């Protein structure tokens, strides 16, 4: 078949919307931010749209301090395991991708919770592996200073390594359940992992059998040098942020090119940049929708958001003037990629502080696409067909209507063009993404 | 009204059954141990029976080593947060009580997950606060030695303390959601907690608003001196194990008597001993059912279970002979109460090792009640009406039929005798248990 490769789509739930002022939008159901029925309806909408997965970001603070600006933003974040598990009970096909940091968690707990979610959902779990970078987060975990960028990656690498050992600690056929012979499991197929590393010392085995997918799908986001190398070796999905086709193509080529040395084929990793779609019945209506969202940003909140992205306090600079001189990339500890992206954008387009916060407060550094459903589809198609993306993480400006509009108006166009599935191909997330079932490292050793 | 006090009932899900050999029982759905539909059906059965709550135990090991005996037992344990959250989406009234240890967890994560579960379930979460005592568990968390008993309680007390601070960090009316004025929350009603203690140093606030119940219901199980004092001060439900009416009455009186000095009324804490009901259409059928369960215990598994409860290797002693000399209570680190209970039982009834493992492998130290549905109801009524219990945590021998039998045959008798509710009284677990809504410590300070 000429065109049997289909794009992969994630429905990135940031509630009540990806735009920083989304919660003020009349259509955003801000009052439902803690209501299960609201999330259930959206999950079922995404499943009706045949999305590969729901994607949840995470963080361990209520905001960036007790400022007025902070109180103008959403300070509540639903916990990913709790939400995804509840949604597993009211959906059947869609994947459930949760962000969990390797910086302030224990591998045993993380391995176990994902294994449990993967079993209960019949193979629909995915783990977005991140590191935590904020000082504020450190102070919620009895730590004075957060780990330096390079140490965070060391720890992350060891963390993922030991989690996969724990998932493998039960071989695929270890559970026997022979009632007559009184054999619940085969003890020769359940293994201690006896991991002793720089960060962790973990005996195992896990107290739950191997996940339904072998491993839940591994998602990563980092785009720094260390992050790219880790992703090329271990990631199965990359969630990333690029503004231009050229940047995205360069990244795509770079990452896929690094995989061979780890014995992996380029198809074993799906690159899915985030996109922020602003849809209108006409191009003009889409522009109006965007302008209306921008008008909802309180000035203090916009400046505070930009300050936090750049790790520089901008509150004393004229909002309609240019950015002050910024620190060099080497001086930045954490979220280096976003820092560079925003700095480059300001320089490239010569933007004021206000213009810049308006630009980043929607897509937060991700690609913004505006227009009619046809135009939205065209922009996705362009990247998909030009080796810039294997799919996209869709970031609706506000919920639930931003998602509903995408499912109702954009998905059918992608399906008509044979760019997106009509039905789920497999029964697990791994199968729908076209990823292979991972070999168990303990089984492999004995072959 | 003469008899308006009703007993409280928990449905203790230990899957596929509370009896150590339950998984071999022909009626136990052992093959469904990872199947959400199986748990969903049982949760809905418990809710049909108007149980106050589903109760889940927990632990962080796959068993007690790589022995044959271990492979004869259930080595898989569903993770409480993941399971309870999934069940919250398919039930409406029943409480969701999960065990989470204070020894190997972080207060911020625990506070947040319970808050999220409490919100999504509309006020049905409960936290069974325990400490971890096993060496094996320590080795799954990069620790060489587990904490001594007294230190575990120190840490537990500080842990609960900081978790309640985090739950209170958003006052009840902190969330405003004023779209016009751009006020998501009132910054004067969201508080850092700035906790600095021996074990934890946590800034806060939490990144989710105060739980629907103020606090999820606090359950405790420890019956040691330190555990009793902590419970009298902070617990709202006690899950405990007693064999005789006299012991249970003494404990009931002891605990309730300790509450006044903390400014609490005896009604603010519900004492719910575990009971293991073996039901038959006749007394003889119940006895046969019990004998059949006992016949399913592999000798090695029985000895291993008893060894682990007593922390003494019994495998070299004749199984039909008496227990060897045991260490004194002071030498035992962890689960002291269960140790004493089993030792006392062996001495009181002069039991052999085999008889003893048969006795403890069902109820594991809890009260075993056998007989017709009428006789089961009588035994519950006796304790309930004689100040030995405010209710019971029901531990069916095997699932789902052990639970189904209780709901179908015992609950109607309790209802007929006006000992148990016909309908849920309130909309939250706290309301159904007759517990008051906790005052927010930050709000209280400003009055």
UniProtKB/TrEMBL annotation, chains A, B:
<dbReference type="InterPro" id="IPR016215">
    <property type="entry name" value="NTA_MOA"/>
</dbReference>
<feature type="binding site">
    <location>
        <position position="223"/>
    </location>
    <ligand>
        <name>FMN</name>
    </ligand>
</feature>
<comment type="similarity">
    <text>Belongs to the NtaA/SnaA/DszA monooxygenase family.</text>
</comment>
<feature type="domain" description="Luciferase-like">
    <location>
        <begin position="19"/>
        <end position="384"/>
    </location>
</feature>
<feature type="binding site">
    <location>
        <position position="149"/>
    </location>
    <ligand>
        <name>FMN</name>
    </ligand>
</feature>
<feature type="binding site">
    <location>
        <position position="153"/>
    </location>
    <ligand>
        <name>FMN</name>
    </ligand>
</feature>
<keyword id="KW-0285">Flavoprotein</keyword>
<feature type="binding site">
    <location>
        <position position="224"/>
    </location>
    <ligand>
        <name>FMN</name>
    </ligand>
</feature>
<keyword id="KW-0560">Oxidoreductase</keyword>
<protein>
    <submittedName>
        <fullName>FMN-dependent oxidoreductase (Nitrilotriacetate monooxygenase family)</fullName>
    </submittedName>
</protein>
<dbReference type="Pfam" id="PF00296">
    <property type="entry name" value="Bac_luciferase"/>
</dbReference>
<dbReference type="GO" id="GO:0016705">
    <property type="term" value="F:oxidoreductase activity, acting on paired donors, with incorporation or reduction of molecular oxygen"/>
</dbReference>
<keyword id="KW-0503">Monooxygenase</keyword>
<feature type="binding site">
    <location>
        <position position="99"/>
    </location>
    <ligand>
        <name>FMN</name>
    </ligand>
</feature>
<dbReference type="InterPro" id="IPR011251">
    <property type="entry name" value="Luciferase-like_dom"/>
</dbReference>
<dbReference type="InterPro" id="IPR051260">
    <property type="entry name" value="Diverse_substr_monoxygenases"/>
</dbReference>
<dbReference type="GO" id="GO:0004497">
    <property type="term" value="F:monooxygenase activity"/>
</dbReference>
<dbReference type="InterPro" id="IPR036661">
    <property type="entry name" value="Luciferase-like_sf"/>
</dbReference>
<feature type="binding site">
    <location>
        <position position="58"/>
    </location>
    <ligand>
        <name>FMN</name>
    </ligand>
</feature>
<keyword id="KW-0288">FMN</keyword>
């Amino acid at each position: 078949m000429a065109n049997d490769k289909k794009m992969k789509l994630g429905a990135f739930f940031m509630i009540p919307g990806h735009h920083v002022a989304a919660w003020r939008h009349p259509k955003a159901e801000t009052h439902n931010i803690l209501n299960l029925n609201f999330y259930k309806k959206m999950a079922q909408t995404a499943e009706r749209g045949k999305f590969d997965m729901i994607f949840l970001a995470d963080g361990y603070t209520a905001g960036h301090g007790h400022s007025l600006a902070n109180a103008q933003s959403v300070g509540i974040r639903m916990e990913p395991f709790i939400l995804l598990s509840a949604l597993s009970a009211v959906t059947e096909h869609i994947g459930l991708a949760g962000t969990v940091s390797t910086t302030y968690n224990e591998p045993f707990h993380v391995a176990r919770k994902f294994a449990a979610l993967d079993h209960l959902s019949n193979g629909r779990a995915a783990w977005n592996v991140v590191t935590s970078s904020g000082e504020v987060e450190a102070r919620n975990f009895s730590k004075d200073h957060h780990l330096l960028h390079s140490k965070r990656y060391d720890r992350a690498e060891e963390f993922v390594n030991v989690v996969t050992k724990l998932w493998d600690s039960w071989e695929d056929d270890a559970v026997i359940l022979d009632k007559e012979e009184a054999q619940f499991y085969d003890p020769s197929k359940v293994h201690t992992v006896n991991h002793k590393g720089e960060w962790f010392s973990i005996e195992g085995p896990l107290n739950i059998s191997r996940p339904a997918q072998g491993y839940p799908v591994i998602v990563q986001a980092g785009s720094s040098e260390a992050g790219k190398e880790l992703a090329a070796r271990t990631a199965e999905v990359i969630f990333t942020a690029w503004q231009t086709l050229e940047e995205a193509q360069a990244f795509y080529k770079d990452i896929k090119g690094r995989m061979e040395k780890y014995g992996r084929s380029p198809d074993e990793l799906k690159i899915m940049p985030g996109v922020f779609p602003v849809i209108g019945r006409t191009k003009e209506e889409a522009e109006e929708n965007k302008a209306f969202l921008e008008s909802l940003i309180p000035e203090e909140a916009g400046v505070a958001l930009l300050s936090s992205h750049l790790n520089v306090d901008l509150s004393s600079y004229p909002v309609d003037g240019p950015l002050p001189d910024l620190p060099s990339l080497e001086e930045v500890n954490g979220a280096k990629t976003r820092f560079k992206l925003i700095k480059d954008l300001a320089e490239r387009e010569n933007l004021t502080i206000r213009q810049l916060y308006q630009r980043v407060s929607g897509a937060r550094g991700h690609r913004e696409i505006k227009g009619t459903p046809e135009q939205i589809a065209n922009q996705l198609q362009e990247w998909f067909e030009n080796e810039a993306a294997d799919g996209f993480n869709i970031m609706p400006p506000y919920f639930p209507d931003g998602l509903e509009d995408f499912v109702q108006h954009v998905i059918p166009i992608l399906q008509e063009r044979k760019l997106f599935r009509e039905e789920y191909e497999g029964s697990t997330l791994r199968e729908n993404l076209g990823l292979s079932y991972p070999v168990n490292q303990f089984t492999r050793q004995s072959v």
